[in-house]
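To whoever is covering the structure queue this week,

Two jobs came back overnight. Logging them here so there's a record in the thread.

Job A:
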Amino acid sequence: MARLILFNKPYGVLTQFTDHGAAGTRPTLSDYIRMPGVYPAGRLDLDSEGLLLLIDNGRLQARIADPRFKLPKTYLVQVEGDVAEPSLALLRRGVGLKDGMTLPAQAERIAAPDLWPRDPPVRFRKTVPDCWLRLTLREGRNRQVRRMTAAVGHPTLRLVRWCIGDWTIDGLAPGEWRAVQAG
């Protein structure tokens, strides 16, 4: 039976176990997870938060991370501006990016979720409204959510991956993890 770790990656943490940057001082997975033999199935950018799966089975790891299997990934996204139906419709149809059209996304406007405070906090601007979206994608291009929201005129301010398939971070604080059974 494969070991699967659900980790709520905090903002500013690298999705690798060592920092190969010039200073080598950024937080990494090794600051939170001390379980040998597990590796990330996919990645989250330094400035994104939320669910990261780590697993000790290479075949299952590839299946989770490979866009060909179209495992849905759901994100809670705070964006700049007041998103209206035309922008949501564009996200639902697919958005043209420099590397081609995206697959259609499930997109809906939601009330601000009850999330932990982010450190550092998202910059507040009195004259610029913001709102929250729930986006579900079935592909995983580099910085795709951020590029999609920007393409429809609403840059991303905060990005939290909430679930991958049936796995979720519900009940996990930033930096916490739990092991679950993986088939």
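Job B:
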Amino acid sequence: MKIFGHSAHRLHEAKLELIPGQLVPTIETADRIDRVLETVTARGLGSLVECGLATRDDLLAIHDPGYLAFLETAWAEWSATNDPKLDGIGFVWPHRNRPPRIPAAFEGKLGYYFFDAVSSITPAVWPAALGAAGAARTAAQHLAATGTSTFALVRPTGHHACHDMGGGTSYLNNTAFAARTLAKGGARVAILDIDAHHGNGTQDIFWQDPDILTVSIHTDPAQDYPYFSGYADETGGGRGEGFNLNIPLPPGTDWQGYSPALQAALQRITDFAPDYLVVALGVDSYVEDPSGKLALKAGDYSRTGQAIAATGLPRMFVFEGGYHHPTLGDCVVRVLEPSV
């Protein structure tokens, strides 16, 4: 299996994030990549290939030009008017209505372009995000050229990044960028998001696209992040109606409840008959993960990987969430091994 990444992520380390009632050290850190890479290497899956950066022009395929321009200059704007020892974190999040307006003040822009306070602006956020997107694109290109499975081992995470808004430690949507890359020549692409949290950004980007099926299995958003997206009645819009499937699960769901959801997701994907499958590989569904509310155990990730491989579809994986360091690498590798 070819594994792709970019070292620019190491320079992006946010200090704090806001959770209910307090500011705490962020859990989306560079050593997450280290834990996974150590296990991938030890199990003989392959070594990491350094990729080039994506460019802003590349990313216009999935993101709004105004949002990209904001991200590119965000640190410069923040540090020009605030203490550069502090990360850029918003404090107001308006509804975009009456009509939507982008404030001139940078703290207003932060509120406009991010939907939470866990997605900090740091000195290296832009190159780190470009590196992750570039690796996801290269992994997709290698899959298309060879038909062999690939893994984009990247951070920051991506599946919460919408067309014109970031959040959930996601700035650019790596999973969506991989899918769009694969679809360039007219291919049909399915996305299976198995992160514990709804891939709201991916849903947003492909909401009206009948050529890219989006399927997400996640904790019921009535009970968990991102709260406002991921309900079962969200099925797509316009030409994309019927091409978005959400399978929300109650908090505490273990394999007994998760397995039927996975089978339903894979059946919908099989019925769609895609040319490629992109898996948003989050393992924060692990029972001890500090971020998730599901209850999968290590062996369940092997079962998940086997079920995905049994589809026989040409496939790739993009790393998303997962924050329980002692088991992080093992859970990821268990999903990947049947595809090697």
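Note for Job B: The chain has ten helices and ten strands.

Please reply-all if you pick these up so we don't duplicate work.
Q.
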